[in-house]
Amino acid sequence: MNKKDDQVSGATQQRTSTADPLGTNSEIARKLKQYYDELVADEVPDRFADLLSQLEKAEPARKKD
Predict the structure, then answer these.
(1) Phi, psi of 24 (to 5 degrees)
(2) What is the count of structural domains for the chain?
(3) How far apart are CA 22 and CA 32, in angstroms?
(4) Dist CA 64 CA 60 (whole Å)
């Protein structure tokens, strides 16, 4: 590469880093946030909630033993 190519490449990198501080990782971060938001929004299945309730009831009984 010559000096002009280096200048153009540096300007492109600088412009990209200014516009998007995460660079190529921003798409990954966006997808992870979207997945997390969907996961948190999901309701707990009734069966799972029942199991948690049973566990909470059994826990005080085990502490007394």
Answers:
(1) -70, -20
(2) 1
(3) 14
(4) 7
